[in-house]
Amino acid sequence: MDISGGSVLVTGGAGGFGSAAARRLGGLGAKVVVADVADERGEALASEIGNGAQYVRTDIMSEDSIVNAVEAACRLAPLRAAIIAHGGPLPDDPGGRTIRKDGSRVSVAHFAHYLSVYLTSAYCVSSVAAEAMAKNEPLRSNQRGVIVNTASIAGFEGQPGQVPYGAAKGGIISMALNLARDLAPLGIRSMAIAPGTFLTYAFAQMGNEAAQERFGPLVLNPKRMGDPDEYGMLAQQIVENDFLNATTIRLDGGQRF
Ligand SMILES: NC(=O)c1ccc[n+]([C@@H]2O[C@H](COP(=O)([O-])OP(=O)(O)OC[C@H]3O[C@@H](n4cnc5c(N)ncnc54)[C@H](O)[C@@H]3O)[C@@H](O)[C@H]2O)c1
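Above: inputs. Below: predicted complex with nicotinamide-adenine-dinucleotide.
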């Protein structure tokens, strides 16, 4: 798909994956909406990308806020791509293995929180974006748009203590195909990327070196964490390549645990 005449919505757009995808797609001439709650990083990124890119403060826990971000993108140009790459607020319950060492169980509220942050919000962005894309004039390729969600290898094989996160990301993997089926008659594709371990802002507290030392050796080859631009490259390829549809692509250097 030629994205140059369209707009792109990136949720978590100021984050590691989001900013990498935003830079790549902005570089192709798309009008980018950086949707996030990190105001300073979001504003800075929008001015770095230029070409009319906008930072729109967007809380992915709020449907109204998501609708507002989609409308902002549509005002710039027809919405052709939604890259869904946000994190979200931390839960009150610290989580852990389902039954913790002290015999207590991880709360249902904790499980529901993860579904809400990582899955319900992704459905909300996907469906609101698809509703807008459905109104686009189709391109010569008969395509109207593409939705790219972010799963995780935890959706295939999580680690101990990852039941809620793994379930949410498993939902994203399932949604990639089911959305693609529903949206096919409208000329809208749906894909998901399942990253392994990437050095994004999510590891800022730990520090880059400590994160590399701990997680780099888990990767089969190359023996390092992923670079967010490797996610950006794949997001770009998914947007541009009309024959990629209805599946989840692992992007993990062969990591399997
Ligand atoms: N980094 C990894 O190793 C990894 C691996 C697999 C999957 N993922 C997934 O990738 C996605 C992005 O994570 P990342 O690693 O780029 O993290 P990140 O911390 O670099 O980016 C996440 C972004 O989401 C934003 N955000 C937080 N709360 C928000 C809210 N309420 N509304 C809107 N935006 C909000 C943050 O401000 C941040 O900019 C997440 O869904 C995560 O589960 C990450």
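The chain has a mean pLDDT of 98.
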